[in-house]
TrEMBL record:
PANTHER family: RIBOSOME MATURATION FACTOR RIMP (PTHR33867). Belongs to the RimP family. It comes from Mycobacterium noviomagense. Keywords: Cytoplasm, Ribosome biogenesis. The keyword RNA-binding does not apply. This is Ribosome maturation factor RimP.
């Protein structure tokens, strides 16, 4: 039985070039043929934020291209979105894109860090964390291979100016972990 919907790979092949030209990559495609109408969800991410205007533009492009495929029959709901905060940060590009965001990090040695993502390069992320006395901010270099899990945290208040400066300037690093 055919659903009249494209496969995940077909969607990626069809849309990848257009999304890349706009500065985004397709992280995932979810197709749910059980829903009525069926749903095609495209998760995109890039080095610049995915704002509403960009989502609208990418949605229009995706809709136009998908509607042009003869094998797709019937109605479907198309959604284009960013990965959201629940997605774990698992690669250097995820950390690079999360610069300035607060993250909860579990290290491979079992310890935990709560910090703000700074510069990421050469397999290391700089995290802005509280110093040992908890009075000031410091930057700690953490090798990505020592991170077991990292998840962006939802924030309800803005960061301090000092914390944000350290996360965005790339200065003031502390050696080691």
């Amino acid at each position: 039985m055919t659903t009249g919907l494209p496969s995940q790979n077909e969607v990626i092949e069809l849309l990848d070039g257009e999304f890349a030209r706009a500065g985004y990559e397709i992280e995932d495609v979810l197709i749910d043929a059980r829903r009525r109408p069926p749903r095609i969800a495209i998760i995109a991410d890039g080095d610049k934020p995915l704002d509403l205007d960009t989502i609208t533009s990418l949605s229009q492009t995706a809709s136009r291209l998908l509607d042009g495929v003869q094998s797709i029959r019937g109605q479907y709901v198309l959604e284009v979105s960013s990965p959201g905060v629940e997605r774990p940060l698992t690669s250097e590009k995820h950390f690079r894109r999360a610069r300035g965001r607060k993250v909860q990090v579990a290290l491979t040695d079992g310890s935990q860090l709560l910090g703000r993502v700074g510069e990421t390069q050469d397999g290391t992320v700089m995290l802005v964390v509280r110093d040992d006395r908890g009075r000031d901010w410091t930057v700690r270099d953490v090798p990505l291979n020592e991170i077991a899990k990292a998840v962006v945290q939802v924030e309800f208040s803005p960061p301090t100016q000092r914390e944000l400066e350290l996360a965005t300037s790339g200065a003031g690093t502390e050696a080691g972990t």
